[in-house]
Amino acid sequence: MASSVSLAEIRKLSPEADKSWLDTIIKGDCVAALEALPAGSIDMIFADPPYNLQLGGDLTRPDQSAVDAVNDHWDQFESFQAYDAFTRAWLLACRRVLKPNGTIWVIGSYHNIFRVGSSLQDLGFWLLNDVVWRKTNPMPNFRGRRFQNAHETLIWASRDADAKSYTFNYEAMKAANDDVQMRSDWLFPICTGGERLKDENGRKVHPTQKPEALLARIMMASSKPGDVVLDPFFGTGTTGAVARRLGRHFVGVEREDSYIDAARKRIDAVEPLGKAELTVMTGKRAEPRVAFNVLIEAGLIRPGQVLTDSRKRFKAIVRADGTVVADNVAGSIHKVGAAVQGFDACNGWTFWHTEKDGELAPIDEFRTIVRAEMARAG
Amino acid sequence: MASSVSLAEIRKLSPEADKSWLDTIIKGDCVAALEALPAGSIDMIFADPPYNLQLGGDLTRPDQSAVDAVNDHWDQFESFQAYDAFTRAWLLACRRVLKPNGTIWVIGSYHNIFRVGSSLQDLGFWLLNDVVWRKTNPMPNFRGRRFQNAHETLIWASRDADAKSYTFNYEAMKAANDDVQMRSDWLFPICTGGERLKDENGRKVHPTQKPEALLARIMMASSKPGDVVLDPFFGTGTTGAVARRLGRHFVGVEREDSYIDAARKRIDAVEPLGKAELTVMTGKRAEPRVAFNVLIEAGLIRPGQVLTDSRKRFKAIVRADGTVVADNVAGSIHKVGAAVQGFDACNGWTFWHTEKDGELAPIDEFRTIVRAEMARAG
DNA sequence: GGCTGATCTGAATCATCTA
DNA sequence: GTAGATGATTCAGATCAGC
Questions:
Q1: What keyword terms does UniProt attach to this protein (chains A, B) (predicted)?
Q2: Which of A25, A236, B85, B338: CA 20 to 30 A from B239?
């Protein structure tokens, strides 16, 4: 499952046809490694970049941007600049491989997340949410000079400002959250216990292993089964393990052999879930469209029938062509519904009702019947 | 108490002896106004700058009513560069008037907070914490395209990296927080009800008035009685009102006359607390709400597992997204529980059971386990 | 006055498909 | 690409109307 491939091997293959990089860990620096992947090939990215600000020689590209600040903190400023250059480089590489409707998640702490967020904005990503991971069991502040650092911040962004059809499983998130919208503050324990990878001496393999529950929430929210999820700082492969379990493909980039080895073993041991368990809750948006006149043709509504709103303040009469008429307005169920209320818009399906045995029922119920028949007919 | 003084008036006085600007609102642009204050004269700054929301078209609620958006002229910026220049200018002005051991708080949303955080770091401030204000009652996401934006971010920073003796009332915070360290995630309602300033027509005076509880937490944590607290974007004077109540001096800078008038009346009506009452204040605590997917994420319930009612008449299968499926219905535990019984509503927590060692137990028992952990995290 | 249910509102970067 | 039509979408809490 999780085998390592060389860059050269990938490059000599046709990028179009080549899918050999799916479900693999690419060894190397993330900017260079990502150049080997085809543009627009990734559905979702999760990135947990280093936030050590004393980066030294690890940075890959010189900074090209002008410095217009004047202050007496040159040393410090230079290291922020270096971190910014590093950040822009890997974010640009990620942006190239991301599909137009793909999204990226980046996690960080107050040491680096403001640099990351600014860079995302500067490079043209469009921020969708910032999400707070509240830790149930954070490390205490030992010196008592600050608040206990009990959260980390995630940024969720689309590739472009006008990206509209990115994946967000709104109904699934809501249904899973006691039927109320999922908020931007999430509560999870940090990664400890059996989930935490240890070496033969009982020492943790990676210093900042993220909990699988966090990655699962992210992937369930913003990806679909079969999607390709990239992690440019793969570490010990939490992203890969969760992706495999949830029926997503992964690509990881990692420099350290010890992490790659641990990740590969870990991912190979994962048992993927079945199709039924992975089916995602969808809402009306995903249902096939039904035109109003189909209800007439099916005999569920007849021409001349009277429609009213739920409080019987307005009424409209159905015409044979699938339009309706109220006082001085005629048109679609939506147009007429909006007009009688004086609104710009209206969902006619839920606004208009018919009377059946003395009880009012929205015409949307007939649409449900039609949809069920459509589903049976394929 | 809260009188307005002209810049010229302040300037002609000796800056050393002059304290006439204490407990006043200075009318004008904040950068220019701050030039009139002596350097190193401020103990703590709270700043609620424009967020640069970049809103597109109008937004309507599902009932077609209009959302009252923040589209004020003061929140319009041409570009991120323009916003950054504005941010650096006012932060530099703040830095000059801040005492060497003073600290600054800035609040923002994901639209601007990354720019603010980066600028703070670039200008030599030293970040101490980022703090999350979790809203008990945030505005919903009306289109279902993102997570509900349920928090705002505060950054707390000292003037310099090597500042050691800034004020942090660690013991008071801990005592106020049930004798455990105060965390970086705080829970408060947004400012509504009697606290929200309204004009004679019942409309809100300021679009973004902050709750006094938030300011009280900030001042109790990071200032002492008698300290001078500056607010460069004073608005309707929440900072001034809380400062006066808590025995701190304030200085406010504000451009709009209507806000200044409202703030002055408001502050004059504040009754300062006595010395004894200034010691410990407590905040509201969370009512632990647990969603079904938390049990999955915690590994207490696994995707594919079968749930039944107490008499095993109905069964449902758990999916990875936190929804469940029975015969022809899918959705939340509540929705599906209601559907299989033919009811309108159902408490899925007590209706659905799992089998463990041949005995049925309601899934509510798992929730109890999770609640214990959540309680620890506040 | 008290209770019940309807209405209103809050820092919001909030569509998608067909012609 | 753009214009027009379809039709999807809200939580907590304060306030108010009506009994």
A1: DNA replication, DNA-binding, Methyltransferase, S-adenosyl-L-methionine, Transferase
A2: B85
